[in-house]
Amino acid sequence: ILILFVLALAPRINAKISLLNFGLILLCICYFYGSLATAFPYYEHLRSISGPLTVVYRHAQFLMLILVFSRCTRLSGREPLFYLGMMVWFQLAYALLTPLIYYFPPFFMREGFSWWGRIGVGYPTMDAQIFCFSLVAVICLFRFSALKFNAVVGVLILGILMQVTGTGLATLMCLFIYITFFDRKVFLRLLPSFSVMVCLVALLIIGFYDLLEKPILLAMEKLGDIGNLGGGVSTDIRKEQLEQLMHLGAGDNFRWLFGMGAKVYVENQYSFFLVAFGVVGVLCFMGFLVTTFLHGATNASRDNRALMLAVIVFALSSYTLVTFYLYPMY
Description:
Blueprint: H1 2-9, H2 19-39, H3 52-70, H4 72-76, H5 80-103, H6 124-141, H7 146-163, H8 166-182, H9 184-207, H10 209-227, H11 233-248, H12 253-258, H13 269-297, H14 302-320
């Protein structure tokens, strides 16, 4: 990543300050002073999601990769859509192969690899969000025929549903709300796919209820959590993690502003920044999300619409994941 970053940076540095670049500057500020806080941690004994230096250099890699992908045509001779297309096709293969591997595991799969009620073979929340991102790419950036479009979208939605995560379901709902009210052409193109998907899921539930009992129960629980505005077990666990960490720094205004360093464990990117890099850190992160979203929302091109929806996916992912720690989320 560092070699690619140097090659991408070599021609020139774009000094133009757009909303997008301003958001990246905010992230840089957060990263650099966060590095100092990690080098001199306030609480040595805290549990960490990983080595604190690992967490911080992954923040740096995120910034590097943004520049690398923005220059990918010059570096590789391929357009960005080529790489997005590769990702989408791999996602389609993953969605189709996953049920087979889940119900008929090959000999090399370790025992107990499956999560309760989730028809997946990876990290369910992360996988669901990558399916959502692929869905954004297909809706905004690719020119497929009606049949191919509906087939691809249908498989991606099936992939999201198989993961049975509250974050994935909430993100899917947000994407559908956007399409319904702000993109009628896509909405009309999606009607056949959506209708077939509803019928297919209904038939699967009726025909294979015994196999799907756990996913159905979990899905009902997750939908209840969403209806209760995130008042479920997963949210309670994350709240408890944050409360325990905030208690340590109570009464210390400096730590409240600038954080305790990256040696913390909480499964929520907003909470991570709040505890690790303080109020300044979480405001920088939210500023990055807001300015990047506005950059996409105030420009009418397909690229910018995809960027806007991708920010929504990333922002929702950050509610239940430490997004900067997970490479697929980059």
